[in-house]
């Protein structure tokens, strides 16, 4: 069980499989100063849901101990050893696989505009289905099982956002941003959250983007809060409030910011960890294609 403390430092939890660019040696991960509900003033069209949490600045690079807690020291050699609910991976899609969709995005001007008011619907382009098929045919190399993954639509988000996900579920005026949150695609109970489908999210933009997450599974947060199974498990049957309770009790626990370059994708168990994405520092739109399934990232 994790130690309880208002100043709980970074713990060993979810493991990240990503490796530095040997040419640039640029940083891969950063740590926030915690989380906060005191969100600094934002433009009028960028509201947040009541009670939302965002990473607290400043960001810093992890020290050696923290880096070793976060990141694996060598790739997975076989997808069969991938731990579905507690591993995150970064992989790169080949140019030829993404090129048909990238051509469409360039043709429509989607990758160049800094505002989203006049985006043309991408799925209506005559070449869209064949471009998606190209990606779908490549996905099986990452699939852990024979189940067919679900490919969602391309999502376009404006640059310069602290967090990037809107609240589409609660019918709030203006669809505000959710802040750090939990997905529930499979609606599994807390005990089985680690068996949920994970996601692969491809960066189709011109610039790097950032995946944000707290490196603990929901059950690890459950234990950190001093809760126990079976005594407290049924009060938190689906675990959907565990993340908020954790961020309230441990406001200095860091958020991890993981760099995802163009043509790269992250694989992450978003039904089992608190997360979001960020487009801060970007000049061009943040564009992604997300697939839901059972994915792993082994060494090619």
Describe this structure in words.
- The mean pLDDT is 90.
- The strands form three sheets. Strands 1-5-10-7-12-6 form a six-stranded mixed β-sheet, with no helix packed on it. Strands 2-9-8-11 form a four-stranded antiparallel β-sheet, with no helix packed on it.
- Helix 2 (95-107) packs antiparallel against helix 3.
- The protein has helices at residues 64-70, 95-107, 128-138, 218-224, 242-249; strands spanning 15-17, 29-31, 35-36, 54-55, 87-92, 150-157, 198-203, 209-213, 256-260, 264-268, 275-278, 286-293.
- The protein is α+β, with helices and mostly antiparallel strands.
- It is built from five helices and twelve strands.
- The protein has a single domain (15-293), classed as Jelly Rolls (Sandwich).
- The radius of gyration is 19 Å and the shape is globular.
- Helix content is 15%, strand content 19%.
For the biggest β-sheet, the strand order reads 1-5-10-7-12-6
Query: What is the count of distinct domains?
Result: 1
Low-pLDDT runs: none
SSE-based structural type:
alpha+beta
**Percent helix among the residues?**
10-25%
Multimerization status = single chain
**CATH class designation:** Mainly Beta
Annotated CATH topology: Jelly Rolls
Whole-angstrom Rg: 19 Å
Question: If classified by CATH, what would the architecture be?
Answer: Sandwich
Number of helices: 5
Biggest sheet character: 6 strands, mixed
Strand runs, count? 12
Secondary structure layout:
Blueprint: E1 15-17, E2 29-31, E3 35-36, E4 54-55, H1 64-70, E5 87-92, H2 95-107, H3 128-138, E6 150-157, E7 198-203, E8 209-213, H4 218-224, H5 242-249, E9 256-260, E10 264-268, E11 275-278, E12 286-293
Parallel strand pairs: 1-5
Antiparallel strand pairs: 2-9, 3-4, 5-10, 6-12, 7-10, 7-12, 8-9, 8-11
Helix pairs in contact: 2-3
């Amino acid at each position: 069980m994790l130690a309880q403390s208002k100043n709980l430092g970074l713990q060993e939890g979810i493991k990240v499989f990503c490796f530095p660019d040997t040419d640039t040696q640029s940083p891969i991960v950063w740590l926030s100063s915690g989380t906060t509900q005191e969100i600094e003033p934002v433009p009028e069209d960028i509201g947040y849901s009541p009670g939302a949490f965002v990473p607290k600045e400043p960001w810093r690079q992890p020290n050696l101990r923290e880096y070793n807690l976060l990141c694996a020291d060598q790739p997975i050699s076989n997808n069969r050893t991938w731990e579905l609910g507690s591993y995150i991976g970064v992989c790169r899609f080949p140019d030829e696989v993404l090129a048909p969709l990238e051509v469409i995005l360039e043709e429509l001007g989607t990758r160049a505009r800094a505002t989203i008011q006049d985006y043309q619907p991408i799925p209506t382009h005559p070449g869209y289905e064949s471009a998606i098929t190209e990606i779908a045919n490549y996905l099986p190399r990452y699939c852990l099982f024979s189940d067919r993954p679900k490919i969602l639509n391309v999502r376009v988000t404006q640059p310069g956002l602290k967090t990037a996900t809107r609240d589409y579920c609660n019918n709030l005026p203006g669809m505000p941003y959710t802040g750090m949150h939990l997905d529930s695609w499979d609606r599994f109970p807390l005990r089985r959250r680690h068996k949920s489908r994970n996601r692969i999210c491809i960066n189709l933009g011109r610039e790097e983007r950032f995946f944000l997450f707290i490196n603990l599974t929901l059950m690890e947060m459950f234990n950190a809060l001093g809760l126990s199974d079976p005594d407290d498990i049924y009060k938190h049957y689906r675990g959907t409030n565990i993340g908020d309770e954790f961020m309230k009790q441990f406001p200095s626990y860091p958020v991890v910011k993981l760099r995802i370059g163009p043509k790269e994708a992250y694989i992450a168990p978003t039904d089992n960890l608190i997360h979001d994405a960020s487009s801060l520092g970007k000049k061009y739109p943040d564009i992604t294609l997300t697939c839901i399934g059972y994915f792993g990232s082994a060494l090619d």
